[in-house]
Design a protein that fits this description.
By secondary structure, the protein is of the alpha+beta class. The protein folds into three domains: about 110 residues, Alpha-Beta Plaits, CATH 3.30.70; about 110 residues, Chitinase A, domain 3; about 150 residues, Orthogonal Bundle (Trigger factor, domain 2), CATH 1.10.3120.10. Helices cover about 45% and strands about 20% of the residues. The protein is elongated and about 115 Å long.
Amino acid sequence: MNVVIETLPNCITTLRIELGSDQVNRVWNAVTADYTKFAKLPGYRPGKAPQAVVEKKFKKQIREELEKKLLSESCREAISEKKLRVLSLSQIDDVELAEDKTMKFTATLVTHPEFELPNYKGIVVPMQATDVADAEIEEALENLRDQAADFADLTEDRGAQMDDFVVVDYRGTVDGKTVEEAFPKAGKPLSGNDDFWIQMTPEAFFPGYAAALVGCRIGETRTFEIEVPAEFPVEGMSGQKIEYVVTLKAIKLKTLPALDDAFASSVAKGKTLEELRAMAREELGRQKTEEAEKNKRASIMAQILSQVECELPVDMVRNHTRRILSDIVRENQARGVAEEVMKENEQQILGTASQGAREQLKATFVLLRIAEVEGIRPTQLEFTHRINQLANRYQMAAPKLLKELEKRGAVDQVTEEILTSKVIEFLVTQSIVTTLPVQE
């Protein structure tokens, strides 16, 4: 067998394979012998027809079977001989079977990207200290107090002041039209609302909105104009003047609960304030450790990937981009982002998805190469554990899920996820961690 290899852009490799007559004849005779055993030909008992007669009768079928066996067999041998990392066999072209039983064909392969692995051991990783300061605990307790705050109606005879919480009815118009009519992408909240709560801060709702209500008394209605800020995301609204008619319905005073054992027990039943502080310290420590570990892995990967430049298979990038794009759209829909807004930012979203796809694929190929070099392999126990995790997530029986994955050809993807996770953990063990000082 003679193999000529050609490397093309975008991770495409072609193999021009030539097979000698000895190899072709061996397979040809084996296929013909199978047909001879079972062929029913007039004048001959099964298995007794001369080979020449069988070849003449079943020449087309024998050739098809010959090509089927030889093409796959010789492709595997050529890939092994040339030590290629193959993702898929794209196509086979230019098949030629000569009279002297020699064969030629071209196989087009999609291969792993080629790159030199940088040094991935001993990477220095800066890691933020995970100690929990007393001030952080007090801040967490204040947040809990804030969540448990009570709001009572103001009894004092005065108008609204900055930092007050007020309840208002309001309507907004632009040149006599509701904001939504004038600018459909702006949405309903800018046009009006009833029983709407606002904390009187300079940037609340729109800059200047709260300031226009200072001194307003309960039951009073005020009319004022607000200029839409330059950075407002809806096209055409920047600089527009919205006329608001606002009726103040209530002024609310915010009262925080006392920081004592009774409050602690209301947050965590039966706990004292000191026990609640200890719980807060433990939870904050867990969160900081988790975040630090996540950042450590991200830093390792960023340092490695910054040293790798390579082409990526076009179809894989396209398919991965499509999946990420679908996830982005779903997330935006869940957050209530209007379809028009997504359409307006279509190119930006597509660019983000494409860049994310390339980064993720490059990371996967680098991790797989490290696994190859280091001899890291997933175990059957790890595979079974991962299948059980997925089965629990999707509320399916593990055997049923496995069959579904096999049917979709997705088993290798699960194995790859396990393998890349193991490699990342290996890289963590090989890194050098330097702890940064606690941020004040």
